Amino acid sequence: MVLFSFSVFFQKYSHIHKEKTTLKEVPHRALECMKENLTMEDKDWGCCPKNWTSFGSNCYFISVESGTWDESEKKCSSVKTHLLVITTKAEQDFIIQKLDENNAYYVGLSDLQGKNNWQWVDQTPYNESATFWHSGEPNDLSEHCVILHFRASPRKWGWNDVRCNQHQKFICKMMKIYL
């Protein structure tokens, strides 16, 4: 697949611009677009912000900086995204291939009331049968936020509940922009 910078793509296909509102609504300075086979009429290009990773119909940003859970969600929100919401095993498997085993990453799952009522930041229903908790997790009623974390034994990525004021890296997720 050939990647195009958005500026070159925009010049070549300027008629598409009329279908969209304005680029001011896109908080990213550059997009990378790939030709895709889509069922959406006349929407053949799936775009992610430059330096984000594409999977399915979504784009992912893996941070190199750390922050608390709230700071991490605010950083994602500042570019019109949210912390990662994991909905399938395929998505979890894709993401963990991109991560550094020496770091942990905040995802968009929390229990801010401390009542074991886990909720995703985008209001996606929490499905207990589609979770990827490490064995024995969640395990502490004072830990209200979730990280994606690698355990050396049994050499596996999974979810772990932690205190929300810990500084961790984070992952943002957004829907692709289709042109």
What report would you give on this structure?
This is C-type lectin domain family 4 member A-like mRNA variant X2.3. It is found in: Cell membrane. The chain is an alpha+beta fold and 179 residues long. The chain has a single domain (4-178), classed as Mannose-Binding Protein A, Chain A (Roll). It has 4 helices and 12 strands; from the N terminus they run βααββββαβαββββββ. It has helices spanning 6-12, 15-19, 69-77, 89-97, and strands spanning 4-5, 31-35, 45-49, 53-55, 58-62, 82-83, 105-110, 119-120, 145-151, 156-162, 169-175, 177-178. Strands 4, 5, 6, 7, 8, 9, 10 and 11 form an 8-stranded mixed sheet that branches. A 4-stranded antiparallel sheet has the order 1-2-3-12. β7 and β8 form a beta hairpin. It is globular. It starts with a strand and ends with a strand. Mean pLDDT is 83; it is low at 1-26.
Task: Outline the fold blueprint.
Elements: E1 4-5, H1 6-12, H2 15-19, E2 31-35, E3 45-49, E4 53-55, E5 58-62, H3 69-77, E6 82-83, H4 89-97, E7 105-110, E8 119-120, E9 145-151, E10 156-162, E11 169-175, E12 177-178
Parallel strand pairs: 7-11
Antiparallel strand pairs: 1-2, 2-3, 3-12, 4-5, 5-11, 6-11, 7-8, 7-9, 9-10
Tally the structural domains. Answer: 1
Task: Write the CATH fold name.
Answer: Mannose-Binding Protein A, Chain A
Find the count of extended strands (DSSP E, 2+ residues). Answer: 12
In N-to-C order, the SSE pattern is: EHHEEEEHEHEEEEEE
Roughly how many Å apart are the termini? Answer: 16 Å
Q: Measured on Cα atoms, how large is the radius of gyration?
A: 18 Å
Total number of helices: 4
Q: Name the CATH homologous superfamily.
A: Mannose-Binding Protein A, subunit A
* CATH architectural name: Roll
Please identify the top-level CATH class.
Answer: Alpha Beta
> How does the overall form come out from the CA principal axes?
globular
Helix fraction bin? 10-25%
The biggest sheet, with number of strands, parallel, antiparallel or mixed sense and barrel status, is: 8 strands, mixed
Can you tell me the residue ranges where pLDDT is under 50 for at least 5 consecutive residues? 1-26
Structural class: alpha+beta
Percent of residues in beta strands: 25-35%
Q: How much is the average pLDDT? A: 83
